[in-house]
Design goal:
alpha+beta; four-stranded antiparallel sheet; two-stranded antiparallel sheet; about 35% helix; globular
Amino acid sequence: MRRKSTEYLDTEIHGRFDRRKTVFFRRNVFSGFDHFGPDTLDPGDPELLDLAEARASWALHDNYPGAFRDTLMGNRKLVHNHAPFRFKFADRQIATENISEVAKRFGASLVGITRLDPQWLYSNERSGNPVILPEKAVWAIVMAVEMDRELLSTSPAFSAAAESGRGYSKMAALGGAVGEYLRLLGYYARSCGNDTALSIPLAMDAGLGVLGRNGLLLTREFGPRVRICKVITDLELIQSPNEYPSSEDVCSGCTLCAEACEAEALSSSESPTWDILTESNNPGVLRWQFNPEKCFDFWLEIGRDCSNCIAACPAASRLNKLMD
């Protein structure tokens, strides 16, 4: 049975999540995941090549000024020497089809549209600034970028970490370009990566997938091998359908991700629960519980991020059997 993201909530205790409660902000121990110290560094170690690739993979995400913004870059105009104007689409259907096609040409592997549920907005960003959007910015274009199966299968090697970083840089370029496209057409558009709003609930609402045991979006095309970005806009669009089954239909009876998790951060229980394990879990959500502290401690221990739960997940094949 398909469920909307809101059907997993206890609205009496669930609220907008404060991004300052993410484990990255709360622990405040991120140091670049470097396990090469002065006493261990060998300048001829081939692993340093993989480390350099992993570091370089984040270059676009960390340095592209257009990735996370809601204003035009510079003084661009759609037509030179012409006052800004708003392009008139014939109707919502044409606008939706156009945006989806443009997003795919900019690099999206999957595109879905949803009306923005305000509860998925963060209450505050890591800076402490409250998240406030224009009143008419009520549509979200949610896009997923595929990550390479073979490279992720090497997790927790640096080659898998590099593929994760490439995924973030691709989503920065994609979200920035789609947002700039809409702004040039005269519409409000906020390009977002992991900021502004929770990506997975928005992706579920946009019909791109379902929440998995591993706490990630599961898609029938790629399983959890995706990175998600979104653009929030005031362009009137059409809601995408959601034909996905429930999380229980997909993940009950399968614990491969939990077994692959060397940090023991994932649950092996048969069914989701309402329990929370740390302050980084938002209360009032029915899900398989995830302990981000254990996960992040493992990352620090090995000196890089880990994708074991992604590599082990058979969700794509399971979903295709359920949905065909």
